Amino acid sequence: MEQKDGLFISQNVQIPWDEIDLHAIRAQGAGGQNVNKVASAIHLRFDIKRSSLPEFYQQRLLQLNDQRITSDGVVVLKAQQFRTQEKNREDALQRLQTLIQQAGFTAKARRPTRPTRASQKKRVDKKVQRSQVKNLRGRVRDD
């Protein structure tokens, strides 16, 4: 995941470490006496507009309707799932990497297909057969 130069996104894209802002903060919630002493949570900030990301990634990220991206175009992630600062740091970087990779993914265009003539005939035959079964359930008439 991590490289010496920066965070790996794809073969051609890598974010330098100086563009990712990491701060250690105290985690919220239960944790006993340790929670008030140790800054184990990580607060990650990444400014999309000022980054060296290619224009394609920047546009796709800014178009996302994601609560982790502010109106100024800054990704804000808070990682506090683990007890150690190192694991929370890795988690925050992994989540940033996943977010950017998902923004860069383009879905393959769907080409609509048409049902074959045999499948259409089969469907109609089943409808006719089902209709006959239901008609046989009707009242028996004495004519």
Q: Quick one: biggest sheet?
A: 3 strands, antiparallel
> Count of helices?
3
Model regions low in confidence, pLDDT < 50 over at least 5 residues: none
The average pLDDT is 83
Overall body shape: elongated
Which fold name fills CATH's third level, the topology of the domain at 6-104?
Double Stranded RNA Binding Domain
**CATH class category of the domain at 6-104:** Alpha Beta
Characterization of the model:
This protein starts with 5 loop residues before the first strand and ends in a 7-residue tail after the last helix. The protein has a domain at 6-104: 2-Layer Sandwich (Double Stranded RNA Binding Domain), CATH 3.30.160. The mean pLDDT is 83. It has helices at residues 55-63, 85-104, 117-136; strands at residues 6-8, 14-16, 20-25, 41-47, 74-79. It is an alpha+beta fold. A hairpin with a 5-residue loop joins β1 and β2 (14-16). The strands form two sheets. A three-stranded antiparallel beta sheet has the order 3-4-5, covered by helices on one side. Strands 1-2 form a two-stranded antiparallel sheet. It is built from three helices and five strands, in the order ββββαβαα.
